[in-house]
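Internal tracking record. Fields below are filled automatically when a chain is submitted to the structure queue. Please do not edit lines marked as system-generated. If the sequence contains nonstandard residues, flag them in the REMARKS field before resubmitting.
Queue: standard
Priority: normal
Entity type: single polypeptide chain
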Amino acid sequence: MSASAADQTWTGKISDSMCGAKHEKMAEHGNTKMADRDCTMACVKEGGKYVFVLKGKVYKIDNQDFAALQEHAGHVVRMTGEMTGDTIKVSNIGMI
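SYSTEM-GENERATED OUTPUT FOLLOWS
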């Protein structure tokens, strides 16, 4: 998949809007410790949105239906896309 001229690439983590940069809200999952991936998937299933965490800052993801988001939930990835303000429109996601 080729990137457009406005696309940029970052390395960060795919998380969820309920937990953001840190998965510490264990009370939402029955007070049990969960892996970041499991927590992200559970929060998205409960209505949260995928987000991208870059250097501690949380960015919204515009195209929530991008197939690789679910595949890489909770993982550190290399994401390519176009950033407008605090929102990224994803064009590619790959493991690093």
